[in-house]
Amino acid sequence: MTRQTLLFTLLFTPFLAFAHGDEDHGDGPKPAVAANVAPRAEAQTELFELVATPANGQLTVYLDRYASNEPVSGAKVEVESGSWKAVAQAADNGSYRVSAPQFAKPGQYPLVFTVEAGDDADLIETTLVVAEAAGPETAAAGHGSGSMWWWVGGGLAALAAVSLLLKRRKPRQAA
After folding, report:
1. Cα dist. 154→70, 147, 158, 159, 165 in Å?
2. Which domain covers residue 53, as residue numbers?
3. Residue 30, in any domain of the structure
4. Residue 90, exposed/middle/buried by CB under 10 A (0-12, 13-18, 19+)?
5. Does the N-terminal or the C-terminal CB of the chain have fewer CB atoms within 10 Å?
6. DSSP at 103
């Protein structure tokens, strides 16, 4: 019985060292940005924090006080990107909107916001990153499981061979 346990352990212990599932082992390509993550730009200063998201030809800016996370309503928000400049119109609860269809295309867009809210004024810089939509080839990328079946089949064949050898052996007879 001890030999059978030893053979079984020697045959199947190496299988514990193989990778399984879809864990990242650091040697494959890095995954693309998920297509369902909305593009955005984030920035903060001592006075304000903002998040800008493009959608449907508009840039929506969410503006909060940094210290209290309270939405800032009634501010004057100017936006610049390269030669483009516009004033965002106040929407609801500390958000502002401006027409910006140029941010629909993939790319990196440097943004500069000038914010005036009461006695507070600030200049906020950030970069809006609009990623390309992930294609089907990047969504299906991962570890292949084809080679795993060769190992499983080989292990089963080795187990069958060992069990046949053990059955064919005749027990020693005591003298």
Report:
1. 63, 11, 6, 9, 17
2. 41-130
3. no
4. middle
5. C
6. G
